[in-house]
Design brief:
heterodimer; A: 151 residues; mainly alpha; two-stranded antiparallel sheet; B: 140 residues; seven-stranded antiparallel beta sheet; 7 strands; 14% helix; globular
Amino acid sequence: MEAAKDYYVMEHDTKFNDLDWSLPKIPSKPYEYRTGILGYQETSRKINICEISTEPLYAKFKRLLNEWRKESMLMSSITDMVMLQSYQTIIGMGPAALRLILNELKHNPDYLFYALEIITETNPILHEEEGNLERMTKAWLKWGRREGIIT
Amino acid sequence: MKYLLSKFPGLTVNDCNIESDQDKNYNCIAWAAEDTNNYWWPLNRGYWPAGVQRELTIDAFIAAFSTKGYSVCENGLYEEGFIKIAIFAKDDGTPTHAARQKSNGRWTSKCGKYKDIEHELDALCGAIYGNITCYMKKPT
């Protein structure tokens, strides 16, 4: 399977209107759009993601997550962890990654909260919960259920 | 063990004991402060003691450990009646790691989200954690 190529993120902002946002030449293979992405794309307020990739979204997320876990294993610095390329690429997946991240938190909690915070521009973690993996996970799962992203 | 030896060239099989399973609930800073419930870090929603400045500086880390009764001292030599910690930092002064001295004079570290190990203090100096920039101690 061909590796993921690019995500084109187009902000709906007038300052970008003059830029050339045309997509590259369409490959002969049909795009593999998935309803989950398009579903979120329609409801996203700020970001519209056009995925041009043959790697399924879930496979890409798991690949990046595994890379990140391996690279960050010995790091105590959350700041360094979230700056790793694999983590930044997960953030770059945008709203399409939300359900994947939240489902991952359900089964294998980890420090994915910064990615959620950047993508959603919200923070459901109370000050007294900061640093407590279990409580931060619960706060985000509660948020995800309230927003209807996970069950 | 093989994994740790590959990452920290200063560690040797004879000088390193693994003392716990992998645990993501706390990190080295928390372990040095004897807290296994929280992941201590001043930024990015980590736990940080109330009233201490949330910044990536040695001064902020010294202030954080001061809330646990530690004060700055000169070296990491074992002193009867005291617990010591060592704070590691990169060349630019950014803190990366902390280790705590045990009653046998050796040091214990939590390696990120990985395991607790007992080791010689200098064994963790290098590319990953940088070097020791500060020692602190408190009465036992």
